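Quick one:
INPUT:
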């Protein structure tokens, strides 16, 4: 666009120079013609009135010649030496002055003779031809440059319009960017205000979590000490039985060394060997096996808390289906069916922990089913919020009494009729795994109607791991 403006200005300057040369040429030619007209009028009438235009024209010649020479020097389309034109005019002026002088000296015949030899006519014709050609050339230059200037002006107008459209488009884009930036700032500010507003709630929630964790630790310590104490008490009691049996046997051997054994001592020793010792040993073995199971359960829960989590993209639907396939034969034996509905697609979590959770919940659904009706087991997974997903595992089994809803998650605690094998470890293990992943589990159940376990997990475990330094 700057080039077009510069080119337009150059054309305007060229037209101005051409007009200046044309005007200077026309003025110079007019001055010479006026001088010649005044000379001829005076020669014919010898009236001094005709000398006035002659004198005025001769007086203007020097100024007009200078203007012509200056204008000619500023153009390049006329190859002409201004000195040649000036010399020709000087000769014509000399011829005019001489004839007027002869006429004033009463020698009009000589003056007419000079005119008659046509030298002055040739000079005038030369001057007229030269200046007329310059005028015509200048007119053509003016016309050409004006036409070119019009074209450039049209092009410049088009470029200006395009430029204006481009500027408007750029401004619109800038406004859109600014608007988007302002909107993002507003959203960020709103999120920041929301985070600030929820900070107190989060602190309260974390405090409640700590209180709950402390309470669980206390309950866990009580349960562990109570359940481990019972086998120890049994072992200690039956150790006393062993001592009594050993005393009876020792008395028997001492009496035998003396040569005579009373019947009551013999019967007591026989009873110790045949009944008391085997019974005590059996009870001690049973108690130690129970302690071993309890200790292994405690170690298993402990390992859940120390295990290094491995966040990865998990196909939740495929994982649930794989867990369901493991119990499929048991479901079929119960004339049941499993329904899986998964809407949560983008999940980053610990695959091993999720597999353990689903396996335990499915095993419980089969173990505590209601034999009076076909088993119906369903799993529904969906986004609970922007950062969490929900998994609901429901069955139509025996159900859990209201007072046992929290108790079933405690270690070594079971609910309802104890007609199925188990140590009360499964749901405690499930809660431990889920809380280790930053989630939680609750139960909704009614006796005789069924149970639903409701799980909440972070949709991106890697963020939870980073924020908790795991």
């Amino acid at each position: 666009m700057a080039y077009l403006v510069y080119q337009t200005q150059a054309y305007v300057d060229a037209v101005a120079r051409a007009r200046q040369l044309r005007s200077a040429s026309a003025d110079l030619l007019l001055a010479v013609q006026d001088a010649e007209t005044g000379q001829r009028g005076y020669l014919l009438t010898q009236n001094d009135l005709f000398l006035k235009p002659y004198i005025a024209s001769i007086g203007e010649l020097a100024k007009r010649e200078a203007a012509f020479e200056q204008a000619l020097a500023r153009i390049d389309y006329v190859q002409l030496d201004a000195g040649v034109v000036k010399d020709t005019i000087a000769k014509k002026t000399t011829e005019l002055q001489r004839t007027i002088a002869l006429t004033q000296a009463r020698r009009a015949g000589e003056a007419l003779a000079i005119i008659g030899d046509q030298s002055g006519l040739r000079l005038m014709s030369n001057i007229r031809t030269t200046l007329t050609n310059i005028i015509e050339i200048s007119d053509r230059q003016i016309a050409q440059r004006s036409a070119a200037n019009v074209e450039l002006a049209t092009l410049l107008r088009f470029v200006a319009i395009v430029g204006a459209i481009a500027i408007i488009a750029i401004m619109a884009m800038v406004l859109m960017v600014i608007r988007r930036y302002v909107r993002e700032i507003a959203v960020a500010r709103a999120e920041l205000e929301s985070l600030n507003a929820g900070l107190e709630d989060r602190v309260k929630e974390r405090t409640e979590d700590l209180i709950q964790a402390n309470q669980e630790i206390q309950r866990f310590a009580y349960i562990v000490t109570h359940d481990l104490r019972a086998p120890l008490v049994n072992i200690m009691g039956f150790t006393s039985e062993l001592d009594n049996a050993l005393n009876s046997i020792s008395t028997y051997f001492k009496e035998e060394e003396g040569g005579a054994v009373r019947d009551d001592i013999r019967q007591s020793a026989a009873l110790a060997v045949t009944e008391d010792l085997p019974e005590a040993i059996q009870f001690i073995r049973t108690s130690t096996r129970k302690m071993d199971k309890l200790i292994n359960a405690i170690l298993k829960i402990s390992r859940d808390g120390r295990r290094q989590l491995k966040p990865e993209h998990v196909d939740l639907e495929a994982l649930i289906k794989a867990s369901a396939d493991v119990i499929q034969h048991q479901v079929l034996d119960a004339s049941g069916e499993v329904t899986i509905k998964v809407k949560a697609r983008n999940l980053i979590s610990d695959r091993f922990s999720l597999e353990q959770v689903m396996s335990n919940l499915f095993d419980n659904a089969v173990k505590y089913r209601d034999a009076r009706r076909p088993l119906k087991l369903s799993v529904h997974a969906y986004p609970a919020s922007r950062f969490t997903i929900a998994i609901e595992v429901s069955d139509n089994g025996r159900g859990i009494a209201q007072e046992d809803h929290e108790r079933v998650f405690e270690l070594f605690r079971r609910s309802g009729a104890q007609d199925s094998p188990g140590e009360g470890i499964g749901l405690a293990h499930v809660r431990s795994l889920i809380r280790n992943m930053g989630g939680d589990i609750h139960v909704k159940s009614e006796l005789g109607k069924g149970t639903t376990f409701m799980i909440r997990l972070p949709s991106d475990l890697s963020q939870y791991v980073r924020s908790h330094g795991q």
